[in-house]
Every structure is written in C-alpha cells, then in structure tokens.
Amino acid sequence: MGNIFNDLVRTIEANQANHARGYFNCIPFSGMNRLESFIPGIEQSTYYLLTANSGVGKSKLARSLFIHNPYEYLKNNPQDDIKLDIYYFSLEESREKVILSEISKYLFSKYRKRVSIKQLLSRGRYNTIDSETIKQIHEARDYINQFLEVVKIIDNVRSPSAIFNYMQNVAYNIGTFFDSQGVELSRQEHERIKADLPGAKDKISYYRTTHPRHYVIVLTDHISLLYNEKSPTGSMMSQWETMSTFSNKYCISLRDKYGFIPVNVQQQTSAKEQVESNFRGASVTEKLEPSLDGLANNKETQRDANIVLGLFSPARYKITEHRTYDITFWDNFYRSMHILKDRDGESNGVLSMFFDGAVDYFEELPSMDNVDEISKVMQRVLKLKKR
User: Fold this and answer.
1) What is the three-class DSSP state of 129?
2) Is residue 355 assigned to a domain?
C-alpha cells in the first residue's frame, strides 16, 4: 500500500510541475473550450467510444477529434516534447478515400476553400475544380507525406486478433518489457515474445514506451464491420461475441498493458431511427438522441470504455428546435455532441456544434444569447446555403 501511495504522490507532483510549465498531461481538444471543461483532452491509457446513427458524421467526428486535432497540436507545440502515432483501422472507407478527405481538409485549412471529394474527383455534371485548385493540390504533397508519417491508414486488417497482433508488433518496436523485479527483458526475450513462443510472455510484468510522452492512438471505424473470428472451441463467433472480444479483451489490453489509446466508432441501433411523437404530435427528441442503451449490435462495449461520446442531427428527424437553436435555419449544419459517459468526470453534458460535412469541420456554437458571435456563424451558414 505504501509503495502504491508513494508512486501516486510522485505522479501527482510530476503532473503538477508539468502543468506549471505549460504541458497539460494530455493532448487538449484545441478550440473546443466547452468540451475541455468536461473532458480535458486525449489521455494516455484511456479508451474512447464514439457513437451515432448512420450518416450523422461519427467518422468525421472521430477524425476531427482523434486525428486532425492531435496532429495539429503536435505540429504547433514542439515544446511539449510529445511523440504521436495514430493507427487508423478504416473498416468502412478505403485508404485512398481517407487521403482524399485529408486533401479536402488541407484546402479548407490553408485556403478556406470548401472542396468535397466529389468535386476533387470531378464526378458528375456539376462537380469539378479549377486550375488554381489543381496547383494547390500539388502543393499539398509535402503536407500529406508528413501527415502519413504520423497517421497510418490501414484498410486491410479487419479482424480483432489481427488488429491486436498488429498493435503488439508496434509495441515491441517502441517500448520495453520488464519482469516483476523491474529488470528489462533482453532483446532475445523480446524476440521470443514477438514470435509468440510458448512461455515467452510468462516473464512479462509491465511495459513502457521508450518515450514517456508517446501517444499511440488506435482508431477503429466502425467495429460492427469487424470480421467474425473462430472461438476457442473452433466455432465461428457471432457479431456480438466478436465485438465483445475486441473491446473487452483486446482494447482493454491495449489500454491497460501498453498505455495505448483505443478509439472505437460504433453505430446506434436502427430502433433509434424510429420517430416517436407526444400527444401534440411533436417528435420526442430524447428518444432519438444517442444513448448507451442504443449502441448497436453490442451494448456491453460501453462498460469497457472510459469515455463515450454521442453525435446527433435533429434535422434528420425534422425537429424544428434543439436546445434553443432554430433547426429550420441551421438544418444539416447543426450537430449536438453528447457526453454519455465519463468514468472520471461528469456525464450527460451536451454541446451544440456547427458542422460542415464537406470538409470534416466541427466548431462549438456560441450561445444564442451571445448575439454578436452567433450572428457571425449564421452569416457563414447563409453563404454556404447559397452555393
């Protein structure tokens, strides 16, 4: 007990000293102050789960919070001495399509130019780009190459054990295993562990990355698309069993054993799409908003996660007002983010967001009472509607 207490006190003191020097012991959600008031940022050894109905933008939110945000923070804050690696297991979109999304994001971030993937590929009668945009795309080459050094997009590894084995190999290359006496295992023992030889893992007591501020994000989108595997008895697992194995066995191991950051995207059940009405005929919004009970195909994954975030689009259900915002005006440019679970903090927080799906862009909306600031955002929406 004494050793544990002393270790915790040392951690508290070290983190306080880091904070005083400007390092906040996490990667903050830059530009999202209200979100940070609930969740400080991306923390090591923390498991995040994002959920929404199909087509609402959960993949875009996952990329915004757990790819773009940490990557930009890394570039803009070298003094924090952070090392970042993001492994994006894209089960729904090809590697090429994800990179096209990044080119679109680059054009928006650097030139405030809103170019969708359809426009990038000149698909259809009304979608194309001009020669200036072509030149700007060529300029993006260095940015995209640097981006891909940090963000590994993997679209051909699709089963729970294959993802876990992939990440175990990453762990072997960026850290060290120790025995119960705190002695570093030899390189030969590391190779035996890597080869999964009998008894090789018995000596392992704990693991540390070589760089103490190494953030390893493991984003899987979305987990209902995982390939089913064989159970220990040789029969094929059901989808529920596959998702449970991935979450409860592998993601918890990545979090607790290696200090990695699992981020899983999971759909809401189709039953959440059914609009219910009250006695006046108005939609019951609360029944449509994302919930822990509404997780599709497996509701148990939320038990494993530290933090669960939901995303909601009221315009999808013809809801006219949501948390004081007039949805007849905001339409598909409005989203609400719901903090469904926070193991170490306050749950049930809701944030209203401006959303531009063409460029994976999210921004916290000012309160409707803040007339000057909300008017600025509304003017931007009006311009987008005229395009």
Assistant:
1) coil
2) yes
User: What's the structural domain count of the chain?
Assistant: 1
3-state secondary structure of 367: coil
pLDDT digit string, tens, across residues 81-125: 999 999 999 999 999 999 999 999 999 999 999 999 999 999 999
Distance CA 235, CA 383 (A): 56
Q: What is the CATH number of the domain that holds 173?
A: 3.40.50
| Cα distance between residue 251 and residue 173, in whole Å | 19
Residue 183 covered by a domain: yes
Asked if residue 369 is part of any domain, the answer here is yes
Instruction: Decide: 155 and 95 in contact? Cβ < 8 Å.
Output: yes
CA-to-CA dists, residue 356 to 44, 45, 59, 68, 75, angstroms: 29, 31, 13, 15, 24
List, for residues 351-368, the tens digit of each pLDDT value.
999 999 999 999 999 999
Task: Please identify which residue in the block is written with the tokens 């994954």.
Answer: 301
Cβ distance 355 to 361 under 8 Å?
yes
348 neighbors 355 (Cβ within 8 angstroms): no
Which positions ≥6 away from 203 have C-beta within 8 Å?
177, 179, 185, 189
Domain span at residue 233 reads: 36-93+155-274+284-386
Whether 24 and 70 have beta carbons less than 8 Å apart is answered as: no
User: Does residue 340 lie within any of the structural domains?
Assistant: yes
The pair of structure tokens assigned to 155 is 């679209």
Rounded alpha-carbon distances, angstroms, from residue 274 to 53, 114, 268, 293 = 11, 33, 12, 15
The pTM of the whole model exceeds 0.90: yes
CA distances from 84 to 44, 211, 305 (A): 11, 10, 21
